[in-house]
């Protein structure tokens, strides 16, 4: 059950914010107004749910009292009993909704994401699989109304990617993609395989929240910038000028290299964006590890070495090993159409785990 004192505190804080923003509590500094506006916006959904829950609960109490009396005729009594049954069904759902809304928020959920894909074991087939994953995420992003910008890409000779980095921008991107980090494995017969044998290859996916200046402050003294001539494909003039940039963050040893743009300044800007996100991700990972030292079986551990999903083409199935979910619609998942079913299941599992942890505190 939801404790009344906690619900009252939430509603009281919401009323306080509403009064302050309406000017009923005197002048409010611009900075404080922005902070309160954000808090007010975040609280609005849970307040609406609390009000709906209390209204339904009060209605059921009134109906039960009426049913205990003698003032209702048979027809009205039947209608009241139907309403009570409906409310008994809806109240637990409303209560669950409030509990989910009261779960601690991940500050990065609303951020854009930096998506990094790398071919793993399997040679050319792994690079082709990395290309398949890239197209899967791009089509999913398109269906979600997001935008994808290629930050850097190293294509293999047979197609696909040895490595690719893409920035995905839109509403709540990181909250949807953050559970995609890990090793993705594919089992299929390569086109070059004449004996019809099934090969197993892998690609690694890393999803980082895009960090802003306020998230990570990088001092000039903490980085080393190397400028050099780009190598490999990349346009007519990209290989004839010293436009490639390598930035090393000295305190952490994290290095980012960028050469896709012809402009040195553009390459440096992209490299700094990726560097900032990698540092931010490392800080978040360290904090998460500290907070969850006793937590088992995390869905969102973000471990890049963990095998999280298998795409088995001969059987037409996709299996996510973290939640033991298997879908026999590989063609739709790899096309991005049914990827949302896997992502939604992962989010639901994570919410259930976190809810179990904090249930006694809510």
Structural commentary:
The protein has helices at residues 4-21, 30-68, 74-101, 124-143, 173-177, 264-291, 330-334, 339-358, and strands at residues 113-119, 147-155, 161-169, 182-188, 199-209, 223-228, 244-249, 254-258, 307-312, 317-320, 325-327. With 362 residues, it is an alpha+beta fold. The strands form two sheets. The protein has an eight-stranded mixed beta sheet. β2 and β3 (161-169) form a beta hairpin. α1 crosses α2 (30-68) and α2 (30-68) runs antiparallel to α3 (74-101). The longest helix is centred in the N-terminal third of the chain and has 39 residues, at 30-68. Mean pLDDT is 85; it is low at 234-238 and 294-298.
Element string (H = helix, E = strand): HHHEHEEHEEEEEHEEEHH
Biggest β-sheet description: 8 strands, mixed
Low-confidence stretches: 234-238, 294-298
Given helix and strand content, the structural type is alpha+beta
% residues in beta strands: 15-25%
Distance between the termini: 9 Å
Biggest sheet: strand arrangement:
2-3-1-5-4-9-10-11
How many strands in all?
A: 11
The level of helicity is 40-55%
Radius of gyration: 26 Å
Overall pLDDT metric: 85
Shape: flat
Structure annotation, total helices = 8
What's this model, at a glance?
The chain has 362 residues and is α+β, with helices and mostly antiparallel strands. It has helices at residues 4-21, 30-68, 74-101, 124-143, 173-177, 264-291, 330-334, 339-358; strands spanning 113-119, 147-155, 161-169, 182-188, 199-209, 223-228, 244-249, 254-258, 307-312, 317-320, 325-327. The radius of gyration is 26 Å and the shape is flat.
């Amino acid at each position: 059950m939801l404790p009344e004192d906690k619900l009252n505190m939430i509603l009281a804080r919401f009323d306080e914010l509403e009064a302050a923003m309406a000017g009923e509590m005197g002048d409010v500094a611009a900075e404080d107004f922005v902070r309160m506006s954000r808090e007010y916006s975040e609280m609005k959904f849970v307040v609406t749910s609390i009000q709906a829950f209390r209204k339904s609960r009060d209605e059921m109490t009134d109906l039960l009292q009426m049913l205990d009396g003698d003032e209702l005729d048979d027809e009205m009594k039947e209608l009241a009993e139907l309403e009570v049954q409906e409310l008994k069904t809806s109240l637990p759902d409303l209560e669950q909704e409030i509990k989910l809304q009261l779960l601690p928020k991940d500050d990065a959920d609303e951020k854009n994401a930096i998506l990094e894909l790398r071919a793993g074991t399997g040679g050319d087939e792994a690079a082709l699989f990395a290309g398949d994953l890239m197209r899967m995420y791009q089509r999913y992003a398109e269906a979600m109304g997001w935008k994808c910008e290629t930050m850097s890409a190293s294509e293999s000779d047979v197609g696909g990617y040895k490595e690719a980095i893409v920035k995905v921008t839109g509403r709540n991107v990181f909250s949807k993609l953050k559970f995609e980090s890990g090793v993705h494995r594919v089992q299929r017969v390569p086109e070059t395989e004449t004996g019809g044998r099934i090969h197993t290859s892998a690609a690694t996916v890393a999803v980082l929240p895009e960090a802003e200046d306020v998230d990570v402050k990088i001092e000039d003294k903490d980085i080393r910038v190397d400028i050099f001539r780009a190598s490999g494909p990349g346009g007519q003039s990209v290989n004839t000028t010293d436009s490639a940039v390598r930035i090393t963050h000295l305190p952490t040893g994290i290095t980012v290299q960028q050469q896709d743009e012809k402009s040195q300044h553009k390459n440096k800007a992209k490299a700094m964006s990726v560097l900032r996100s990698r540092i931010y991700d490392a800080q978040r990972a360290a904090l998460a590890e500290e907070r969850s030292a006793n937590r088992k079986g995390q869905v969102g551990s973000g471990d890049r070495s963990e095998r999280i999903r298998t795409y088995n083409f001969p059987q037409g199935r996709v299996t996510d090993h973290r939640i033991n979910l298997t879908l026999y619609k590989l063609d739709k998942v790899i096309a991005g159409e049914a990827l949302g079913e896997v992502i939604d299941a992962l989010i639901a599992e994570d919410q259930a785990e976190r809810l179990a942890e904090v249930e006694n505190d809510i």
